[in-house]
Model the fold of this input.
Amino acid sequence: MTATFVAPVQQQQVDLGGDAEHVFAALGKDPRLIPYGGGNFGMPLELLEPDGDLIVPTERFFMRSNGPVPIIDPETWSMTVTGCVDHPLHLRLDDLQTLPRRTLTAFLECAGNGRTRFFPVPDGTPWGNDAAGNAIWEGVPLHEVLDRAGIHDDAVDVVCQGGDFPEMQRGLPLAVARDADTLLVLRMNGEPLPVAHGGPVRLIVPGWAGIASTKWLIGLHILDRAFAGFWNSDNYIFWGADGTPQRPIREMAVKSVISAPLQGTVIEPGSTVVTGFAWSGHGAIAQVEVSVDSGVSWGQADLEGAGRRSWVRFHYPWTATRGQHRLMSRATDERRLRQPVVADWNGKGYGQNGIHCVEVIVDESQPFQTRKETSRDGLTNVH
Done:
């Protein structure tokens, strides 16, 4: 059926203006999440301790919304496919559900995750290490729909239209859109995709910053050129300290963070385990190293994973001795990309993947002293 690419119609929206208890209940989210205003909620990784599950329960999964959270009835949902195609499409949910499906375990991370670890802290949602998660996604590979539409040979970008507001359009290179792991998601962690995470249908682009994984998807428009809309050419690019654009936000850099023990805690001497999570948008994690002496020496951690698109959990046994210790973790992926000591500062605070540091006291009662360190580019990092 032929259809025209149009802006989304007005939908009912989740009321995000009430108190925290009301908003958590309306979205089906765990009240221990950190509210950042609107539909933005962080999940501290310590919420996964002590069990250390690789899969984040849906109610704890972080949430990032650039606008309102629409409530779209699955019975009335539809998606158009237009532009440089032989056969424009107008698909209902029943149509999509007849197509071949794929299940994938993959991490999802906001481009601004860890923004507050930069100094000075750039403008934007003040995420800690709480805007990342790992889930089981089930859906239709995007290429199945593109193949049925018949993409022209000169096609370059697939522009994805979100149903939250008309301007929410993000371009995706055709080669990435055709990847078998790029999915039109119908289910998350074994259940129908909830409204809070883009239901009834969203896009998942594994390894790429979350902005590429359009929520509440209602349209695909194929272009014969690179898309230069706001969310591609302005808001989600690296801006240098001098105010010049550097490059677009794409794959998330290799990264690890320690989830236990927590910053500033006091632990008993003896056997303990340093744990955390690591991931990379460029490939599977190959190793995670941990230092318990401020980076003087490093030891290899044990890894537990769920596929090359997934994050891994790392475990590092440590015999803790009395005193104050700086714990550090650094990950290396299968392409031999390794975390830098300090991430390059940028104007929007994207891509923070500097080595994570946690300071703990072993059997000491004196007040914990925060330490500061000046990086090689003259910026001060507080750990």
Summary: Residues 20-27 form the longest helix (8 residues). The domain at 255-382 is CATH 2.60.40.650 (Immunoglobulin-like).
